[in-house]
From TrEMBL:
Annotated organism of origin: Coffea arabica
Protein name per Swiss-Prot or TrEMBL: 5-amino-6-(5-phosphoribosylamino)uracil reductase
Residue ranges constituting the CMP/dCMP-type deaminase domain according to the UniProt record: 33-164
Pfam families named among the record's database cross-references: NADAR, RibD_C
Record flagged with keyword GTP-binding: no
Keywords in alphabetical order: Glycosidase, Hydrolase, Multifunctional enzyme, NADP, Oxidoreductase
Family matches, as CDD domains: NADAR, Riboflavin_deaminase-reductase
Name of the coding gene: LOC113710645
Entries under Gene3D superfamilies matching the protein: Cytidine Deaminase, domain 2 (3.40.140.10), Dihydrofolate Reductase, subunit A (3.40.430.10), YbiA-like (1.10.357.40)
NCBIfam families: eubact_ribD (TIGR00326), ribD_Cterm (TIGR00227), ribofla_fusion (TIGR02464)
Biological process terms in GO annotation: carbohydrate derivative metabolic process; riboflavin biosynthetic process
């Protein structure tokens, strides 16, 4: 039976059958009960995208009207529309829900597990609700990001819609339970926003006597097949899986998500000395990348060997879990699963980066004085020092017992992260953005619409010269790698990119084929890719007036694509990147402002454009 997951991977039963909800009531307690049920359903929908939206929230929307078609408050009826954010750069949940509901949206109530953001930079989610005739909006929690927090709520209320926020405008025991479901489904985002590190979950399987392997090191298998299947699903909900060098040497893991859906998490290996085997399953990056984090200067010859295998190596001055997690926070990672041994687990817990624990306990006893345990030395000498889990749950998985709980409570961001308006009111000298340098990276950033991953469709001729609507600039860019290549694999890849449900998926498809079959990439790709990106960006900023205005409003500022790992299109971790995406946008801005002739881009060669960009 398929499992439906909440925030941390625990199976929960389906909350609501959308085809079966039909009720009526007039009293306040019943109204709260229905509000709570619909909000829980929105959270359940939102959870469907876990692993795909990073670093965006999991967003779900339910549109409910009364049985007689009236949307009056306090008279719940039937669910007429649903939607959820599938991935970064895809249609908002609110838009999907009202389109599904059609005319039944008029006078209805929309239930959202979280306040919507604005990745389109045109208030698409708010506009969808307003234009559909929604009369009331119930929101689980406010958006945790300071530049988005409260914006949609104010916008909806300014349009005359009634907006109720759980715990603020409506309160009861039932509402508290619904509020908890909203917090849990986006716990990774809340932890990330509060702590500025990805949400980290420590997972391990141990015997009843607390061993993760025999004295010999043999560990296959401690847990049951059902438990291991659940682990695959936990991996599929994570952006990355981390292990240490000992695990690579001892177990030679693959760290795949074979039963976890379409999402494949990256594999991360932490090793100070790079004392790692030359032959390992993790060095096979045909399906999914591997990143090795190590101490600066460690085994340079082995670093070159890994690079020859297309394994990315990232050096740290001092390798420790805190710095590694801050680095992957900068790369946009939302949730990370730690499947390491006891030594690294203890270091991660001591560093304060582990937020939750999943412990699979098998009804087995292995014994052994030297048999390893799941957590190494923490420096505690008294039981009163022991760390106690919060919100603990217990579930039997086949013969095993899964014990889960938080090491740190789910953050309440309301008192700790004020909105931009609130901050400016307290200290008018505080500006949320640097005036001379504007950074952008993910589409949820204040200037995230500048990204080639933003959800703005463009209409440009395809390989046959026929106009085709590309879902994003990234779809268009990745497809151009294979234009004119007659090989069937290239044609299949081109079709898959066109139909990819998100820019991230289009990028994964294009990069994977380029990595596995470099001979299928068009011969002139390196000499034309800058012009291709420029063409896609120019189309986007030409057909969306609000984006054009946003770009022109940055006149005088340096634009930097803040990707810490893309040293060509981005600015790099320490500013060492070439920042070609930022440079293209600045050149485009100059063209729109009249500094270039209208035909400039048509007559500029790749090298000429590159030279101009280098002067910016």
């Amino acid at each position: 039976m398929a499992l439906s997951f909440s925030f941390g991977g625990l199976p929960i039963p389906p909350l609501i059958d959308r085809t079966a909800i039909a009720c009526s009531s007039n009293n306040s307690s019943s109204s709260h009960a229905f509000d709570a049920a619909y909000i829980k359903r929105a959270a359940e929908l939102a959870d469907k995208s876990a692993g795909f939206t990073a670093p965006h929230p999991n967003l779900g929307c339910v549109v409910a009207t009364t049985a007689n078609g009236s949307g009056k408050e306090g008279r719940p009826g039937v669910v007429v529309g649903e939607g959820y954010l599938y991935a970064e750069g895809t249609s908002p949940a609110e838009l999907q829900a009202v389109e599904s509901a059609g005319e039944l949206s008029r006078g209805a109530t929309a239930y959202l597990n979280m306040e919507p953001g604005d990745c389109y930079s045109d208030r698409t989610a708010v506009s969808a609700l307003v234009n559909a005739g929604i009369s009331r909006v119930v929101i689980g929690i406010r958006h945790p990001l300071p530049h988005l927090r409260g914006n949609a709520i104010r916008a909806l209320r300014s349009e005359g819609l009634k907006v109720d926020v759980l715990g603020e405008d409506i309160q009861s025991k039932t509402i508290e339970e619904a509020l908890k479901s909203c917090l849990l489904v986006n716990a990774p985002l809340l932890y990330r926003a509060a702590n500025r590190v990805p949400f980290s979950v420590l997972k391990y399987a141990m015997t009843l006597d607390g061993k993760i392997a025999a004295s010999s090191g043999h560990a296959s298998w401690i847990s049951s097949k059902k438990s291991r299947t659940l682990v695959f699903q936990l991996r599929g909900r994570s952006d990355a899986v981390i292990v240490g060098g000992n695990t690579v040497r001892r177990d030679n893991p693959r760290l795949t998500a074979r039963h976890g859906g379409g999402h494949l998490p990256r594999r991360i290996v932490m090793s100070r000395t790079l004392n790692l085997p030359e032959v390992a399953n993790l060095w096979d990056v045909a399906e999914v990348p591997t990143i090795v984090a190590t101490q600066r200067g460690a085994r340079k010859s082995f670093q070159k060997y890994l690079a020859s295998k297309d394994v990315e190596v990232v050096e740290f001055d001092i390798l420790n879990p805190k710095d590694v997690m801050e680095y992957f926070y900068d790369r946009g990672y939302l949730s990370i699963l730690w499947e390491c041994g006891g030594t690294l687990a203890a270091s991660a817990i001591t560093s304060g980066v582990i937020h939750k624990v999943h412990a699979f306990v098998a009804p087995k006893i292995i014994g052994g004085r030297n048999a390893p345990s799941p957590v190494g030395e923490l420096g505690m000498v008294e039981m009163s020092q022991a760390m106690e889990l919060i919100d603990v749950s217990y579930e039997q998985i086949g013969p095993d017992m899964l014990i889960s709980g938080f090491l740190q409570p789910v953050p309440d961001l309301s008192p700790t992260i004020p909105s931009i308006e609130e901050t400016s009111a307290v200290d008018p000298s505080v500006s949320p953005y640097e005036s001379s340098i504007i950074f952008f990276y993910k589409t949820w950033d204040p200037y995230g619409a500048f990204s080639n991953f933003s959800p703005h469709a463009i209409r440009i001729p395809d390989e046959n010269g026929d106009y085709f609507t590309w879902p994003s600039v990234e779809h268009y860019y990745q497809a151009q790698k294979f234009i004119g290549v007659t090989d069937p694999i290239a044609q299949t890849c081109l079709d898959e990119i066109k139909s990819a449900r998100s820019p991230e998926e289009a990028a994964r498809i294009g990069r994977k084929i380029q990595r596995q079959h470099p001979h299928l990439v068009r011969d002139d790709w390196e000499s034309v890719k800058i012009n291709i990106m420029y063409k896609g960006l120019k189309c986007k900023f030409s057909i969306y007036p609000h984006l054009n205005s946003m770009l022109l409003s940055t006149a005088g500022s340096v634009l930097v694509e803040a990707s810490p790992h893309d040293l060509f299109w981005g600015g790099g971790r320490d500013g060492e990147g070439l920042n070609y995406l930022g440079r293209l946008l600045m050149q485009l801005r100059s063209e729109f402002l009249g500094d270039f002739s209208a035909s400039h881009d048509q007559s500029t060669t790749h090298q000429e454009r590159k030279d101009e960009l280098n002067r910016l």
